[in-house]
Write a structure and sequence with these properties.
By secondary structure, the protein is of the alpha+beta class. It contains 16 helices and 12 strands. A hairpin with an 8-residue loop joins strand 2 (30-33) and strand 3 (42-45). Helix 11 (209-216) packs antiparallel against helix 12.
Length: 404
Amino acid sequence: MEQIIIHVDMDAFYASVEIRDNPALRGKPLIIGALPQERGVVATASYEARKYGVHSAMNVKEAYRLCPKGIFMHPDFEKYRSVSNQLHNIWNTYASASETIALDEAYLDVTEKAGSWDNACGIARTIKQRTLDELHLTCSVGVAYSKTAAKMASEEKKPDGYFEIRTKQDFVDLIIDRDVGVLYTVGAKTAEKLHRAGIHKVRDIRDRPEDVLRLLGRQGEWITRMAFGDDNRKVTPYRPEEAKSISRELTFQSDVEDYDFLKEVLLLLALSVERRAGRVNLYGEGVSLKLTYSDMKSITRSKLIPSTRSAAVIWQEACRLLDQVQHDPVRLIGTGLYHLGGESGRQLSFEDFLAYNKSMEDDRIRAGLEALKRHYGLDFEGNLERIFSGETLYRTIEYMRKHR
């Protein structure tokens, strides 16, 4: 039996959750992300805001210019993660394999559980109804023979949409006269390159596959297959142990020139990275430091280390890397672990055999937090876990920056 895949995508997820929890926001242009007076981008926008041209990843100041009467809100990622867990619990009930793409999006392989196309369509409609009944949120659902077609189907009737693409021919008939940008992996730059070569429609890709291959190489081969509806990719469940890195970064509202302050920030970021690595039981054999300077130039520095996920080690090595870079004003800072592996493949370092090592690391972190408490009046006792939510960590560090 040919595979049957469902793609589920929530409608303006962050905004929809906020509207659900505060009905007074319904029908208004709601923009989730940075505030207009801040640096940052739009995370998502309600459909009312999208009518003004506001979209995700847009600079927030541009969003404000387009929609000055919009309601701007910071995201509440902890709330969205909680709702996301509820969503995926519903969706996964119907799938033999589920591939989570984001908090609000997933591919579901229902081939075995459905057994037929009609049953699969019934499952898709049930998912929509349960999502609405149990969580009071709408989603758009596509049912198709492939992952590419399923995603295309879910986007076809947004918001609160439902669409089916049963065969390759159905897929081709749907897109053949659309711009090349409709195809998966064709972004703005790739589309521009194709347009310059006179390849504007999907039909043109089918008619001129050699030109597409010459222009784009391996990507062109993939795009050409997509134009013919060929996609045999399987739904692949996400496995945390396959992650290549775990990191945390933050953009300041004003450039920072005080590198001692940046080291204080790195302490909190290192604690956050340790927590994330601990959640999935992974260790890293390298520490990275990322900086974006005020002129938007970004650099990354890294260092190999014995396997660890210790915040103290991450902090120490990130600070050492920081000491070695050009000390210009900084717009963004981040740190993380890479070369990840699990406990079973971990090689113990010499320090692991020292009984006092862990207590020394704890003391180093405790001393760092105590220094923050003395300097800024921040009490982390019993509250450390709370700062790891995106918004709380951001506000904490911004408070520190302003009171440095």
